[in-house]
Amino acid sequence: MLALRHSSIEARGVSLSYGQKRILSSIDLRIESGEFFCLLGPSGAGKTSFLRVVAGLEMPDSGELLIDGESVALKPPQKRGVGMVFQGLGLWPHMTVLDTVRYGLVRQSVPEPQIRKKVEFMLEIVGLADCAEKYPGELSGGQQQKVALARALVVEPRILLLDQPMSAVDRPFRTHLLGDIQNLQRKLGITTIMVTHDPEEALSVADRIAVIREGRIQQVGSPAALYDYPFDAFVAGSVGTANLIPGRVDEDENGVRCFQSQATGAIPLYDRLRAPEEGDACACFRPTSVRLAPYDSSIKDSDFVWMDGRISRSEFRGGYLRYSVSVDGETVVCDLPHRKATLPIPAGSEVLLGVELSQIRFVNV
């Protein structure tokens, strides 16, 4: 059995530059012990660079990084208790699975009987006990990923860093492998940071997510909090498909702040704590929140915002139908559950789109 510990991580004003290019800008972030944390953002946002700072492979220009409340500025990578799985995995083609996993323990001069027990346990827990004598070229992408995980974990790190772990895995197997990684993290209790640009990956496994853009943290929260209450339009689009209707926020003659657009008309924003500042803004809502009704329907629930639209495309996606609807020059996506033997609404059909007010998040651009 491994004697894994888990540690908290805290970044205080961490900045990093490569030459004249700023990569990370004043990152303030705390990751709790035993947490499965995801960094989500587009390519070049600074996700991997932050992992490298935690691992000690990059030294920040300014700020401080703490592990369990202790500054690690003077600690080299091998003294930080961090295991990292790189995007390219870095498996040696001439070494068997067994030799690859035991390599770190040999480097640490661990006695051979302990090496044997630790490696056997780790290969069992990642489901590779029958592959010990195979070489990387004889393994699937998912199995190679598990070898890299086993190699990182067998040395008993306090923190596990995963740099886009699904990049070498075919999409049909990603869900299964993600579940395996999450189960392993829960079983071992190790603090884990995973980097990804895929919102589905982050939403499915993370305890919390930080959305990062151009080296700055935009928002941190639980998957549901970021999905339902994005801080701005960028966060809304980063954590899943988001409909964004552009407009403006202004106060009316009664001092009530309102969102106004051609598509929606004027919508009073009575909840000032959640209302955006005056100026350019978006009405943000998810595809599952949209209701479709015939264009000539007389049923218009007052709790809904109703918009005129025209079906431009429909896609059958198995469990649901995805409609793309043209609304005042914008495309609104609507996901409706598929029912057996029902036909999609034809392209070109005029419809009414209804979105319940409680499901709309008004955000600044």
CATH level-four homologous superfamily name of the largest domain:
P-loop containing nucleotide triphosphate hydrolases
User: Oligomeric status of the shown chains?
Assistant: single chain
Question: DSSP strand (E) fraction?
Answer: 35-45%
Strand order of the largest sheet: 6-7-8-3-9-10
- The helix content, as a percent range, equals 10-25%
Write the layout of secondary structure elements.
Layout: E1 9-18, E2 21-31, E3 36-40, H1 47-55, E4 62-67, E5 70-71, E6 82-85, H2 97-107, H3 112-125, H4 141-153, E7 159-163, H5 171-188, E8 191-196, H6 199-205, E9 208-213, E10 216-221, H7 223-228, H8 233-238, E11 243-251, E12 257-261, E13 265-268, E14 279-285, E15 290-294, E16 304-316, E17 320-327, E18 330-337, E19 350-356, E20 361-364
Parallel strand pairs: 3-8, 3-9, 6-7, 7-8
Antiparallel strand pairs: 1-2, 1-4, 4-5, 9-10, 11-12, 11-14, 12-13, 14-20, 15-19, 16-17, 16-19, 17-18
Helix pairs in contact: 2-3, 2-4
Word description of this protein:
A six-stranded mixed β-sheet has the order 6-7-8-3-9-10, sandwiched between helices. It has a five-stranded antiparallel β-sheet with strand order 13-12-11-14-20. A five-stranded antiparallel β-sheet has the order 15-19-16-17-18, with no helix packed on it. It has 365 residues and is of the alpha+beta class. The protein starts with 8 loop residues before the first strand and ends with a strand. It is 23% helix and 36% strand. The protein contains eight helices and 20 strands. It has two domains: 220 residues, Rossmann fold (3-Layer(aba) Sandwich), CATH 3.40.50.300; 123 residues, Beta Barrel (OB fold (Dihydrolipoamide Acetyltransferase, E2P)), CATH 2.40.50. The model has no long low-confidence stretch (mean pLDDT 89).
